[in-house]
C-alpha cells in the first residue's frame, strides 16, 4: 500500500505552478533565474564554440520543409540542437526542460510529445519583425520557450527587447521583456504575436517549442 502511494504521489513544484498560472491568466510567463549564472555561462560557452566553428546558419522563416531566408524579417543566425548528440551542458539544459514538460503533461494534460530547440545569435543591427510562431502547414507548436544567454550586466540600451502583443478588448497592449541572462520566457505560440527589437550588441539565446502530436 505504501508503495502504491509512493508511486502515485506527486510533488507540487511552486515554480512550475506559477508558470502554469501565468500562462492561463496572461498567455505568457517570465521566469527569472530559470537557469543559474553558472548554467548560463556554460550554455553561452557552448553556443559561442559552435558559432566560432561556423556551423550556424542564417535563420529562415517557414518551417524545415518550407523555409525562405528573408533578412528583412529576421537577421539572426541559428543552430538546431540535437538532443541525441547533446554535450554535457545541453544534457543539463534538456533535463530541466524535460522536467517542466513532464510536469505540464501531468498537471495540465497538455500532451506535449515533441520539442525542438535552437541556439540563436543576433548580430548587431539585426531584429525579428512581429510574427506568430506558427506555420500555415504546421500547428503543432503549443508553447514557445526562450532562454537568454547574454552576459551578466546586459543593459536595456543594448536593445533586442522581446515585445509581446496582447489584444485587450480591441485595444493593443505591449509587454516589453529585456533579454537578461538566466531569464526564460514561455508563451502561447499560436496566440501571442511578438517581435525582437533591433539589437545594438550581440544577443544570445536558446529558443524552442513544445509541440503536440
Ligand atoms: O529571442 C526572442 O526573444 C524571441 C525569438 C523569436 O521570436 C523566435 O525565434 O521565433
Ligand atoms: Fe517567435
Automatic annotation (TrEMBL):
PROSITE patterns: FE2OG_OXY. Gene3D superfamilies: q2cbj1_9rhob like domain. GO terms for biological process: cellular response to hypoxia. Residues 108-212 form the Fe2OG dioxygenase domain. It holds the Pfam family 2OG-FeII_Oxy_3. Its cofactor is L-ascorbate. GO terms for molecular function: ferrous iron binding; L-ascorbic acid binding; peptidyl-proline dioxygenase activity. The keyword Metal-binding applies. SMART domains: P4Hc. Keywords: Dioxygenase, Iron, Metal-binding, Oxidoreductase, Vitamin C. It comes from the Bacteria. This is 2OG-Fe(II) oxygenase.
Amino acid at each position: 500500500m505504501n508503495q502504491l502511494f509512493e508511486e502515485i504521489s506527486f510533488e507540487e513544484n511552486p515554480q512550475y505552478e506559477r508558470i502554469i498560472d501565468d500562462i492561463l491568466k496572461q498567455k505568457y510567463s517570465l521566469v527569472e533565474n530559470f537557469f543559474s549564472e553558472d548554467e548560463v555561462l556554460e550554455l553561452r560557452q557552448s553556443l559561442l564554440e559552435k558559432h566560432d566553428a561556423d556551423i550556424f546558419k542564417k535563420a529562415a522563416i517557414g518551417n524545415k520543409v518550407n523555409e525562405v531566408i528573408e533578412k528583412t524579417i529576421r537577421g539572426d543566425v541559428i543552430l538546431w540542437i540535437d538532443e541525441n548528440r547533446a554535450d554535457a551542458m545541453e544534457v543539463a539544459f534538456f533535463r530541466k526542460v524535460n522536467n517542466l514538460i513532464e510536469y505540464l503533461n501531468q498537471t495540465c494534460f497538455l500532451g506535449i510529445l515533441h520539442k525542438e530547440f535552437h541556439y540563436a545569435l543576433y548580430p548587431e543591427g539585426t531584429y525579428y519583425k512581429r510574427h506568430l510562431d506558427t506555420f500555415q502547414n504546421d500547428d503543432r507548436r503549443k508553447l514557445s520557450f526562450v532562454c537568454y544567454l547574454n552576459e551578466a550586466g546586459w543593459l536595456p540600451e543594448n536593445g533586442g527587447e522581446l515585445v509581446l502583443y496582447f489584444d485587450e478588448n480591441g485595444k493593443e497592449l505591449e509587454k516589453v521583456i529585456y533579454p537578461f541572462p538566466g531569464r526564460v520566457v514561455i508563451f502561447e505560440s499560436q496566440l501571442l504575436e511578438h517581435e525582437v527589437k533591433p539589437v545594438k550588441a550581440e544577443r544570445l539565446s536558446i529558443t524552442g517549442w513544445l509541440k503536440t502530436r
